[in-house]
Amino acid sequence: MHRNDTLIIAHRGVTSPARENTLEAFRKAIELGADMIEFDVRRTKDLRVVVHHDPGISGVPLDRMTLRQARDRARSAGFHLPEIGEALELARGRIGLDIELKEEGCEREIVRLVAGMLRMEDFIVSSFSAGTVERAKQSCAGVRTGFIFDDAGALTRAILRGDTEWLIPEETLARGKLLDRMREAGKKIAVWTVNDADRMKRFLDDDRIDGIITDRTDAALAARSGR
Known about the structure:
alpha/beta; TIM Barrel; 11 strands; globular
């Protein structure tokens, strides 16, 4: 039997058959019983915060479109582009969130917006940028942050000694001495993006791992329950 306290985190929601980073994908994650949803946020030309991974939609950068223009373009591509508030409202009281900031310079605005709608214990704010993580941490007392990385060299001594609570390594880095260093630093560890069944089982059995970020939420939940 695997550990039952390892968090199952739906990567951009549950994306079959829904599109990633949409309210439909988030609803499915809630329905399946995931512990958290990981999703991405960016800003439009008129500084509206939207849920979207890529820099643009159908070849046009988000920072060159107003929210209305971006939504029109998304609609033409067959999906609704949510503002962050829609995602927060849907998740509130139902599921935890890992909110990845894809851009720098909007940390304070986004953290305070989220903190105004959710309890601090119900979300973390994460980024590949150490500076973004630091600014997010400083923007609001009590906010929890996570540093995402896919290169062992990015895990500096300053990050290990710093006050970010979560380290979020790419799955091939979550092993051996590097994993021990993360745990010895007192950090919580969530691994991405774990889609292979055997790796899911290995991480679920490892008491150094606190969460699995996956595109296969149903499979991860089944593995955790021993099915």
